[in-house]
Write a structure and sequence with these properties.
Belongs to the CcmH/CycL/Ccl2/NrfF family. The protein contains six helices and no strands. It has 149 residues and is mostly helical.
Amino acid sequence: MIRVAVLVWLLAMPAFAVQPDEILQNPALEARARELSKNLRCLVCRNENIDESNADLARDLRLAVRERLVAGDDDAEVIDYLVTRYGEYVLLRPNARGVNLVLWLAGPIMALGGGLIALTYLRRRKGADVRPDPLSDAERARLEELTGD
């Protein structure tokens, strides 16, 4: 029974990230804040969003999102504010333009290039005759001697 309670507590840890004092009174604004938080990276925890992170910096980011929403910013303005302040690294899914476009395309291009190199290698290898030369009489005699035939 204790193991189950510990397991449930561990699975619920991300739910404890947003503190009760952070939650906005307006349910619509809170829903928007939660949705925005799911797409923002915790700068301490790497690939964890700020909505699930317990880090102090994630809390500061959650509060900044809520402050901007209460101030009347729309979602794009909130994101722009955070990107201006912390850089595009704060986005879990960075925009695919500019320098980021190179990063987005590099993986598929390299995989395609590697596949073409492998295909070329296999085609050349298939066309080459790799049969060994037949055994000479001396080699055949030595083989028979070793195998006892």
